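Exercise: predict the fold of this chain.
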Amino acid sequence: MKAVKTFWKSASIEEKLLWLYTATLPFINLPFCHFMAKKILFADLVFIVLLLVMGFKIFYKHIRFSLTPAISSLLVMLSSFVISCLNSNSIITSAVELSSLIYLMVLFVLIVNIMRDKEKLIRLLYVWIITSVSISFIGLTAFFIAILGNNITSNQFLSYSIMDSMAHHFPRIKATFAISNMFFSYLHTSFIVAVILFLLESSLRKKRVLSVCTVIILITSFLTGSRRLAGLLLSLFLILVLFGNGKMASLLKYITCSVLSVFLVAYIVTSIWLIFPVKIIKDEAKKTIGLTVNYSYGTHFLSPAVSANMFKRHPIIGVGIGTYNRNFKDYVNWEWLSANFDFTAYPGYIKLIKEKNLSFDPHSLYLGTLAETGLIGFFGLCFFIIHYILLLTRRLRLSGMHNLIHPISGCVIAGFIGFLLNALTMDILSMRHLWFMLAVGMSAHNIENG
């Protein structure tokens, strides 16, 4: 109890607000955390107070403020996205999308400026990992209660739809998140935080506790049933390559590489099956067996097809940032779609197709960026990604094994690359936990630079 009081008293008000913000992120999808429907969340109110406190200290107490070296590439990316507004069919929609991106960039800069020394940064990481493990316990408890009680479909912390039953053999944990994939991406970040703390800690007792936390996060990640587990496995493999020493590390490295290879094959196979399911036909009369390839049971083929059509028609600046859903129905061959796709898992979509009310998100950072912002926006995105990774890579090479930047930069690079792999099938730029992880990497960079 004394340690907790010391922990609390040693923190500044902006640090405590940042703890509160990070602790509320897993609950942003719960109804009691919403204000004005889902437009403003409790975490956003905390952010506003945090922004005001930091603004007061900067202007009236003249504290040092740093925009971080990554700000130049962030501004390049933002500017490249703004150009797409010239082709937008809704300036308001595009402005809202740009505002949300600016919000996350400001959050990124605030975290870097609040976490000015090693102690503050480590305290924030512990708040994150305590929150993450607590949410994982909620999900695991719900999972085992559902299995033992055979109430898989009625548990609010799990996801098990008709489509899930086709591709998964167990209920998917979503805990307090809207969907399992979002929970998984949060756990991906938490895994990186757990490894960073493990590498930084000198206490054997704390290392053991963090090892248990890491295992809990990995188990929960697997039980989210997300095919994006490939990204986390890639991050784990890269961390083992960077920091693994000895026979045990070598063994884990080969095991992880093997599991990653198998999982990627399974990922590809299940993706193809979901888009083009294969049926085995047995003809008793002719004593023959045949294979037929059909269109998808769901709608997984829609987003990439629509994104490709948008990019073909507007290759330079896209259809306008944030307007993917507004343009969706105008870039789909609805007659072909309703005639060829079997909506066994989603029968409700047939009506939406006929009424041309169906809309989807891009479900891919790269395809979505090409569709909404064209080649200009895509190159801006690539510039930011490459610039950020190069910043940390240079520091990683220059730093010694015992420097703060070494384990943090290595783990954040590994985590970011894992996220970039998963970005093939999900939009990662809107994830607050991703920006948190990127800010941690840049905070360590600034701390080492003094």
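Check your answer against the key: The mean pLDDT is 82.
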